[in-house]
């Protein structure tokens, strides 16, 4: 695989020119396996084949093939493209070792709840239960207009079912029920109630805008559009291919005459968690820091803090009905958005009730069932009903779903069947549509940050755009532009500007980047573009796209001259200061590698992995992140094996760094050198040969197999004969 390591440190200022080489650092170094692969003449035919490949031909490719193809499809464009990540994530072998396939049962089988226990009939405004002898108990939801995002307790009371349909009086959309007072809850229902006031508002605005288009653009026909932002928390692009094979196969099988599918390979995050990545999509600007005091105040504020700056308010002003939903009962979004986003439909209270009534946890590492369905099915069904209820009207929905929001990396597998069912139904709806099947970021729980594969998968969440061919053909150059942009650096502010563009499409399809008035009004931070009518420039880097360097998948670092780190005599105090920092980083790398392998007590790591010692520092780079904070990349060779190299990305800061659990990230350390500086290893990476049996054995012992330098085979067999035999039999 391809790996890159970055490091951060204090202010270098005017001294930088004296310690960095004048030659620009090459994107891919001598250890680059892609370069080696491409240099093999026998592979050049495959490269030529790739250049002719359709954008919809990814079906049935292995992760390794996708990984290689991702590079070749990007690299073939032009060599001067500025952003090409060093890695897209785990290979087939590593992903199977890290994230084994799980055979999750159907919730109906798991809970022995095969029949529908409870439902709401919207037309009759009734709650109906299906229990023997009518012996049912139920909990009702709130009025649909009382929904709030953020943490909340369920205040409803358990009620006895009278044996006949119950008349609903409060516009409730959801309920929980069970057959027997002392039984666990066996069922739930969640339905969308359309609002006539929302329909009328949208229709009136649509009519007004179309009249304006007739006057200014000679366009009289309104073509209603459906736009869905289906955001799944913590799914990288490679995780999609690993865990959702049925959905992937379905998307690949779609007829291009009806739908086009675009797979965005460098969809870069703008921050760590959900809100730093969802906020730019909603507002068009990067998330600004909020004090603890303001955050506590905001999460109690039952208003829309964004006001006219939100995408839903822009859409409503253009004749759209809007939906925003989250599958969790936490204050993540409320602290920045307020508790009452100004949308037509808001969806959260159902999961707050599940938290109180069922101990639902959106970070649970086990399958999450609510009644006889996976928890995410309720939001998918509600969204589908919303789309059906507003056919013939512009409609937009943004759903935040969380089946991958946990540390094992396996619960996401429960999504595949349900998402497949939803996609099949959704693509059969009447109005033309565009769906952004995406994630806020890749996985950030567990220990995956410690290795480059997980570190970069976090920065490259999935983004697929599926659109009706009819609409894409009507928008000038949209298909060409989307194909181009799928291989370039894009981010959430681009999606915001794209949504503003799409908000106007029902009334006039031929807007382009030269439609000055309209184009300038679709504002967003950085050099954000509409993905349909603009092309990302080859020169685009993270800084131009308002992506902080620490979250960039393709940051630019400068190579340090060898005199800085090779130990030669010097009186230059500045070089000596930097040298000490680099040496501290290298020593910390060796220490952490040994801690994760040889020194792993519970895994008896010393029986499998060698204790490594540093021979020398081979290479170092640096880049300024912010005042007093810098990134470093350091590569070292070891005494135990001349073919093996280790790289590390570290941050060195004069400021305090937030500490996280050692299970998740590497711990902080201090460098005492002309004042205290905080040092943090961000990830580690091994370069060089490694046998499959060594990697499998160390992974099996709950260690980082990719870092382990194994003992001799005969030595390991003395202590692990059964494990060795099992691995050999599987080979």
Automatic annotation (TrEMBL):
<protein>
    <submittedName>
        <fullName>Uncharacterized protein</fullName>
    </submittedName>
</protein>
<feature type="signal peptide">
    <location>
        <begin position="1"/>
        <end position="16"/>
    </location>
</feature>
<dbReference type="Pfam" id="PF02995">
    <property type="entry name" value="DUF229"/>
</dbReference>
<dbReference type="InterPro" id="IPR004245">
    <property type="entry name" value="DUF229"/>
</dbReference>
<dbReference type="InterPro" id="IPR017850">
    <property type="entry name" value="Alkaline_phosphatase_core_sf"/>
</dbReference>
<dbReference type="GO" id="GO:0005615">
    <property type="term" value="C:extracellular space"/>
</dbReference>
<keyword id="KW-0732">Signal</keyword>
